[in-house]
Write a structure and sequence with these properties.
2 copies of one chain form a homodimer. Chain A is α/β, with parallel strands linked by helices and 334 residues long. The first copy, chain A, contains 12 helices and 12 strands. The N and C termini of chain A lie far apart (78 Å). At the A-B interface, α4, α5, β2, α6 and α11 of A face α4, α5, β2, α6 and α11 of B. The structure holds a DNA duplex (16 and 16 nucleotides).
Chain lengths: 334, 334
DNA sequence: TTGAAAGCGATACCAC
DNA sequence: GTGGTATCGCTTTCAA
């Protein structure tokens, strides 16, 4: 079914039907009513492909995430989506599962769909992709990677700073043997995170020991990585998880080893996802304001109302330590 | 940038470029190579709107969920998506937040995008929408609502059966005062769930008492609803949550009231999301196989390989009780 | 206030 | 093997 069918049944031209549907140009009230009646009788829904093709412009944004299962990403998505809907945009999501190849095809898919802007909130970003997007004629916003330019904006969270705060806090509590639980350490941004931890440890005034382990993102991975960590011989009095989602698994593995948190082992997460308050015990973590990130991403992708053609910008997010009940002084400390 | 640009630069016609890009028809090897070279030099990506418009058919499926934040839905999504990608389909997601109006626009959006099939996995389904979709010329699969017909398939989980098993189990442990925690009881399918609970309670051989409370879906809502429940005066020895996601909040509220689970109060969930094993204590729940649901949905939306034009079918899912550590006999029982 | 017609960027059929 | 062109369903001038 198409405009033609509606036009015929309403005894008008397709141009008129189009005007009615888009609320543009002058249309006599009675004509308008007649057309709308036919439209609803026929259950007509305009072909959006034809519409974007003819219209040229697009009110659609694309967003690509590494792992929608992790509430961190989902929160950002919801924030972008809600801004978008409010302003009459649609949003297309894609999930890469941390696979670089999947990221490539998602990006190309979004370009094929001629999105008006693209947010790339992933950890598997590779330099050549950044270049390709920079050269493309498309508004893009990256998360924690790349540098601003004509069409590129950036949102930076300064992950190392948050880790530094965490490690300092644990150190101040008296912890000297700390483990790190990460995931996908083969991917640059994620091995950077592990490195941030190591550097923070090395910066400690007195002698400290550490070990790291990694498995896939999520509670299961966190549990598995913790299992490895407990077998290293380090006997950590604290474990720093790369994010809250994995920390949930850390807590479980400790519990199953009859290690109390925080009496025997302290645990920290990162992100401050809402689930972190429902963990047992509630997690000490680093707050990353997902809603704000979503708003920034939307702003970055969207022309300012007042026509000011926003150049690529850089937005900085400041990670804040949130102390809850999963951390305490190590056993046997004063 | 379009086919024309590529064609010009490669000194061929747009028809040839199209052939190369789609791997159809005969093309001389050298021409093919030349075209591909230009395509990559120009970073050309075909306009998918034009493609679907010209091609007619679509390799895109739509999926609509009530709440992607609830891992139950996300698991189904991932399962559908993975099948889809494997078979060369794309999938478009939409999230309704349990808002009927949002569902309407999502459905229309999907129709406008001319998806090849639409999975509607929501709780806010209204009869007139079912009709509209039934009349539409579109493969649809519903979750736990509607009846099969020409183009409509259904996946049914028999929620009441699972609740019945749960209540029977709690009853057999000795529980006589049980609370129910739900959400969005204004929506038919969800008030049905609450009703299932009540009916299961009424079926108990001896006298039992119950109360219900509701808040929004999720841990926060679960916590809030539990707070209400604890104020009703029914001092429940067990709480049945409408799903695992809410049960996580139930556990938290009980903990904050110094009620031990399961020593003082037993708790059950529903769905068996992976997080339910990470709850403290791990949740007794009802297993709903999300992956299988995803596979079934994909099958229902997709023409069989062998051309057998699958009529609308009904798939039944059997809910199974999974007993873990959040349930026990009530305090003071033999 | 309305209609006719020129694109938008592909696909696919038909010639050559 | 390759090119020309009708066509998909819509938006958007331009005339009437």
């Amino acid at each position: 079914m198409n405009l033609q069918d509606v036009a015929k049944k309403a005894h008008v031209s397709i141009a008129t039907v189009s005007r009615v549907l888009n609320n543009v140009g002058p249309v006599k009230k009675s004509t308008r009513a007649r057309v709308l009646k036919v439209v609803s009788e026929l259950h007509y829904h305009p072909n959006l492909h034809a519409r974007s093709l003819a219209g040229g412009k697009s009110r659609t944004l694309g967003v690509i995430f590494s792992n929608l299962e992790n509430p961190f990403f989902l929160d950002i998505f919801r924030s972008i989506e809600s801004d978008a809907h409010e302003r009459g945009y649609e949003v297309l999501v894609a999930n890469t599962d941390y696979r670089p190849q999947q990221l490539v095809s998602s990006i190309h898919l979004m370009m094929g769909r001629r999105v008006a802007g693209l947010a790339v909130i992933v950890s598997e970003m590779e330099p050549h992709l950044i270049n390709e997007l920079t050269e493309a004629n498309l508004r893009v916003v990256f998360y924690d990677v790349g540098t601003p330019s004509r069409n590129i904006s950036n949102i930076r969270v300064n992950y190392p700073r948050g880790v530094q705060k965490t490690v300092e806090y644990l150190y101040s509590l008296g912890h000297r043997r700390i483990g790190f639980v990460g995931h996908h350490t083969g991917l640059d941004p994620l091995s950077d995170r592990q490195r941030s931890f190591i550097e923070a440890m090395k910066r400690c005034p007195q002698h400290v020991e550490y070990a790291t382990a990694a498995d896939r993102d999520g509670p299961e991975g966190g549990q598995q990585a913790t299992r490895q960590l407990l077998q290293t011989g380090l006997r950590p009095t604290a474990i720093v998880a790369v994010n809250d989602f994995m920390a949930i698994g850390v807590l479980k593995e400790l519990r199953e080893n009859n290690l109390r948190v925080p009496a025997d082992v302290s645990v920290t997460g990162y992100d401050n996802i809402r689930l972190s308050e429902f963990a047992v015990p509630p997690l000490t973590t680093v707050n990353i304001p997902r809603a704000e990130i979503g708003h920034l991403a939307f702003r970055a992708l969207t022309p300012e109302e007042d026509g000011a053609q926003l150049e690529g910008r850089e937005f900085r997010i400041n990670p804040e330590l949130v102390i809850r009940e999963s951390t305490a002084s190590p056993p046997g400390s004063a």
